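Hey L., structure's done. Input below.
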Amino acid sequence: MLLGEMVALGRVPRTRPWSRGGPEERRIVLAALDAVGLADHVDAPCVELSGGEKRRAVLARGLAQQCPVMLLDEPTNHLDVAWQLRLLETVAAQSQTLVVTIHDLDLALRSFDRLAVVGWPEGSDSRHEPATIVAQGTPAEVLGADRIRTHFGIGSVQVPHPYNDQPHLLIHPREETPTP
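Output:
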């Protein structure tokens, strides 16, 4: 299967069987591939893509579907750091509501408007209780040093980037927060 064909499968819920493949569909597929940096691979066989390219191709298929809500499970997994940032910028630029699971706390802090931490309430026996939302709110609130220490067992501090003031999360393996 060619990459363009695979991405066009995202259009199936949006089109009638006899209306697939027209110029508008091609434009949408190419725009989705362009958004993830794969427009020049539209006619490449999917089996020839790297792991990161395959991950981006699946995202392109989701973008081509043009749904109002997009669910992404670890979308930055298997991507190099430049593509992690570009992918998050790409999905943030969409008009869709995003629901994303992500384990990189620093990327979560600087990439999303609202966060929820899923885990077990402090003092619970996690083997016998289902996980629940233990915190939700703005990234700065949800990823405060106390919460990270409580739920992840590590120390942390939020610091602004020296050039653009974007917050970053510095972590360290000890639970205590160092004093500057």
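The chain has seven helices and six strands. The beta strands are 69-73, 97-101, 115-119, 132-137, 155-160, 167-172.

-- N.
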